[in-house]
Design goal:
With 242 residues, this protein is of the alpha+beta class. Helix content is 38%, strand content 20%. The protein folds into two domains: 62 residues, no CATH class; 160 residues, Protein Transport Mog1p, Chain A (3-Layer(aba) Sandwich), CATH 3.40.1000. The protein is built from seven helices and nine strands. The strands form two sheets. The protein has a seven-stranded antiparallel beta sheet with strand order 1-4-5-9-8-7-6, with helices on both faces. The chain is globular, with a radius of gyration of 31 Å. The two termini are 45 Å apart.
């Protein structure tokens, strides 16, 4: 530090201001207001300078890029895998990261899950999740028919559009699930806006919820389980998808 800095940085309060300080400041402000030249907007100066050197076409391109940067929304954010696991555990769930590379293929009519193969390229159009979490919900008790407590999965996808498209594809695919007889589909009813009850009254309830970049998928086996699964998945999504 230069030797003069301690002096320059001394507490201003250590010095008494002159008695006419306020009058000096007011006179200085009045003089600057009357004599200062009009300031031009720096953005207009930049555009004018570019126009003089690079032509009007360059200005148009730059303006278009500026407009695009203001109109393009920022990607939706999600909690990291570690943060999401911590949230789920804090809420009383058992949670494990998916151990295999899950890939999603989502078109207008179906949501398909595949596994990434080290010796083969990923399918065209496949979506690679940022991470996946398998949720064990203790509130989902086994059914009287001996079926399990359900399967819940959370996936962080590259974009909110991917999550919405995959949720819609999952619901559409459940509504058009191919039956055992060629050309037929399995009967279904909509249990809710996000859950399809396949082959009622025996029932398999497939749930697909998108929130931000997160996609939640659930399979349960009765109405009580489906209600719990929807509520618990929405609870987790509200904390993980920002």
């Amino acid at each position: 530090m230069p030797d003069t800095w301690p002096t320059l940085l001394e507490d201003v309060g250590a010095f008494d201001p002159p008695d006419d300080l306020r009058e000096r400041v007011e006179r200085r402000r009045s003089h600057e207001t009357l004599t200062a030249p009009r300031r031009r907007h720096p953005y207009r100066l930049l555009v004018g300078s570019i126009a003089a050197t690079a032509g009007v076409a360059t200005v148009i391109v730059l303006l278009a890029l500026a407009a695009h940067s203001h109109s393009t929304p920022a990607p939706a954010s999600v909690a990291s895998k570690a943060e999401a696991m911590s949230i789920a555990k804090h809420d009383g769930f058992m949670v494990q990261p998916t151990t295999h590379g899950i890939l999603l293929t989502c078109n207008r009519t179906a949501l398909d899950f595949t596994e990434s193969q080290s010796h083969a390229p990923d399918p065209a159009g496949a979506i690679v999740p940022q991470y996946g979490l398998s949720i064990n919900d203790r509130r989902l008790k086994s059914t009287v028919r001996g079926r399990g407590g359900g399967i819940l999965l959370l996936l962080a996808l590259p974009s909110a559009a991917d999550a919405r498209r995959c949720a819609a594809a999952g619901i559409y695919g459940a509504q058009h699930y191919e039956g055992q007889t060629p050309g037929t589909t399995v009967p279904y009813r909509m249990f809710s806006a996000v859950t399809v009850d396949l082959n009622p009254p025996a029932g398999e309830f497939d749930t697909y919820i998108a929130q931000g970049r997160m996609l939640a998928v659930g399979t349960t086996y009765n109405e009580a389980q489906a209600t719990i699964a929807e509520a618990d998945l929405r609870q987790l999504l509200s904390q993980i998808a920002h």
